[in-house]
Write a structure and sequence with these properties.
By secondary structure, the chain is of the alpha/beta class. Helices cover 33% and strands 16% of the residues. Helix 1 packs parallel to helix 11 and helix 4 packs across helix 5. The chain is elongated.
Length: 421
């Protein structure tokens, strides 16, 4: 085998408007260090691509195509909601990863995802030593939920935050213009299972108590039906209309989600969705107001046309830093964004140990939520505002964004055995 190790990159979980910018950062930086890194492979459909030895040779992609990843949403190599079990439950999965890495001389593992991905990275780095084929595992942060610890923000969040703030502002103008004779209450459902960062971002649309959004329902604040309906009634009385933002993870005091669908996803998380309808029906049944509701759903995380410039820059930067950290000998770490100041917003990147990142969630601090539980504080606004600033429009052709689709040339398999996931 060559002394020069190859690298493996994979995308994990729900994709974002800027995850490909991180991929761009990883690939372009690796190409600048050809004397130290051999080939860079990408997993087709995330970590599943490693388990099944279904990999893409990024070296077959043109410089222009890789550069275009920076402004292309979605996951260019395919992602997956596939959580590796613990080493005790299924050691075979981790051994298979190392087997594939060994076969293809892969010594660098860049895993682009959230908390579960950080955990996988950490375990791979530990087990690879034990199995005699050390792999430098670097976690590249990504999650629209903004709930990874240590890092100031998570790439992907800033663009979602911008989309929700803009959508709230625009929808509010629509509702206000028709409120006297039509819709009184508009409910917007946003992502956020346990942490209310995205819901909080909608609060940037308004400056005063009478500005929309009038009510934000956070996962961190137990839902009180009576208090909620009272506030809705007051808003309609004072403003003729009421705009509500509700996080999908809004829950009652006992922890029951307002929108518990009774099923779980591939990560074992409760399947949520439809909380906007639940809340809107409460308003109709109890107050009799005409309502409309909307689910931002995939639109919020795929809206690259209105991405935050700050977010794009940070997404690329963590990808670049991941490669540089690996080449400097780092292992089992994550490039974390560290805030230096609010105004002007200044940040840098530092190494965060995965032992302090894996399977940990960063919730909204109490000081970011108003005492009544329905809004954001000035401190929260200071935190959020820099993250949505700046525009980074993709190129357009015939009125539509011009995004890239990669060739996705497969790497020849070397192992005789298949692995079923």
């Amino acid at each position: 085998m060559s002394l020069k190790k190859n690298a493996f990159y994979a995308q994990s979980g729900g994709v974002t408007a800027v995850i490909n910018a991180s991929a761009c950062g990883v690939i372009e930086t690796a190409r600048k260090h050809k004397s130290k890194i051999g080939k860079l492979y990408a997993g087709r459909n995330g970590i599943i691509g490693a388990l099944t030895e279904d990999m893409i040779d990024t070296g077959k992609e043109s410089t222009k195509a890789i550069a275009a990843l920076r402004h292309t949403p979605g996951g260019a190599f395919g992602s997956a909601r596939y959580k590796l079990k613990s080493l005790e439950e299924n050691r075979a999965e981790y051994e298979r990863l190392i087997e594939v890495f060994r076969a293809h001389n892969i010594g660098y593992f860049f895993y682009n995802g959230g908390g579960d991905s950080a955990d996988t990275c950490y375990k791979v780095s530990q087990l690879s030593k034990e199995l005699g084929f050390p792999v430098q595992a670097i976690h590249v942060p990504k999650t629209v939920d903004n709930d990874l610890p240590i890092t100031d923000t998570c790439p992907g969040f800033g663009s979602v935050a911008k989309y929700i703030a803009v959508s709230t502002q625009e929808a509010a103008l629509d509702v206000a213009s028709m409120a006297r004779t039509s819709t009184k209450v508009f409910v917007l459902e946003v992502m956020g299972r346990h942490a209310g960062w995205i819901a909080a971002a909608g609060g940037l649309a308004g400056q005063t108590r009478n500005d929309a959004p009038h009510i934000i329902l956070f996962p961190e604040v137990p839902f009180n039906k009576n208090a909620f309906l009272k506030r809705v009634k007051e808003c309609v009385r004072d403003n003729e209309y009421c705009v509500v933002i509700v996080s999908e993870g809004a829950a009652y005091k006992d922890g029951t989600f307002l929108a518990d669908a009774g099923t779980t996803d591939a990560f074992g998380h409760k399947q949520l969705g439809g909380v906007a309808q639940v809340v809107a029906q409460m308003v109709r049944d109890e107050l009799g107001f005409k309502y409309h509701y909307a689910l931002a759903d995939y639109l919020q995380r795929s809206a690259r046309h209105i991405a935050s410039k700050t977010d794009v820059e940070q997404a690329y930067a963590v990808g670049k830093a991941a490669v540089e950290m690996a080449l400097a000998g780092a292992n089992s770490v994550m490039p974390a964004i560290i805030r230096k100041s609010d105004k002007p917003y200044k940040w840098t990147i530092e190494k965060a140990p995965l032992s302090r990142v894996a399977n940990k969630e960063k919730m909204m601090p109490k000081r970011f939520i108003t005492k009544d539980g329905f809004g954001i504080t000035a401190a929260c606004r200071r935190y959020l505002e820099p993250l949505i600033k700046g525009e980074d429009y993709p190129p357009y052709k015939d009125g539509l964004p011009k995004y890239v689709t990669l060739k996705g040339v497969s790497v020849t398999k070397k192992l005789k055995t298949d692995f079923v996931v």
